[in-house]
């Protein structure tokens, strides 16, 4: 996506954010605008939604045809060497 045309605009950034962007830019040989664009693009990427119930992350659903989890299977797996 770096071939996208550049658009000049004005943004109000907190001073510490601008300083961090300039430091990253200097270390990578980029412009601060490129660094901010890359970071914003990364932040906007869709992420899988983590399901949580009562503050505990839920495990993903089982695939169709997968064996049903039972206490005997849990005990068997737990007791394996």
What does this structure look like?
With 81 residues, the protein is mainly alpha-helical. Helix content is 44%, strand content 5%. The protein has 3 helices and 2 strands. The chain has a two-stranded antiparallel sheet with strand order 1-2. Helix 1 crosses helix 2. It is elongated, with a radius of gyration of 23 Å. The model has no long low-confidence stretch (mean pLDDT 90).
Overview in brief:
With 81 residues, the protein is mainly alpha-helical.
What characteristics describe this protein?
81 residues; mainly alpha; two-stranded antiparallel ribbon; 44% helix
How many strands in all? 2
* Sequence stretches where pLDDT stays below 50 over 5 or more residues: none
Distance between the termini: 50 Å
Largest sheet geometry: 2 strands, antiparallel
Work out the strand percent: under 5%
CA-based gyration radius:
23 Å
- On the 0 to 100 scale, the average pLDDT is 90
Q: What would you call the structural class?
A: mainly alpha
Which strand order does the major sheet show?
1-2
Shape: elongated
Give helix and strand order, one letter per element, not per position.
HHEEH
Helix content: 40-55%
Number of helices: 3
Secondary structure topology:
Layout: H1 15-28, H2 32-44, E1 52-53, E2 56-57, H3 71-79
Antiparallel strand pairs: 1-2
């Amino acid at each position: 996506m770096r071939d996208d045309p550049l658009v000049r605009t004005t943004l109000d950034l907190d001073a510490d954010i601008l300083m961090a962007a300039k430091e990253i830019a200097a270390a990578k040989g980029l412009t601060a605008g490129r660094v901010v664009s890359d970071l914003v693009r990364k932040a906007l990427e869709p992420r899988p939604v983590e399901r949580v119930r009562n503050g505990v992350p839920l495990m993903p659903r089982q695939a169709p045809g997968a064996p049903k989890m039972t206490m005997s299977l849990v005990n068997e797996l737990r007791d394996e060497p």
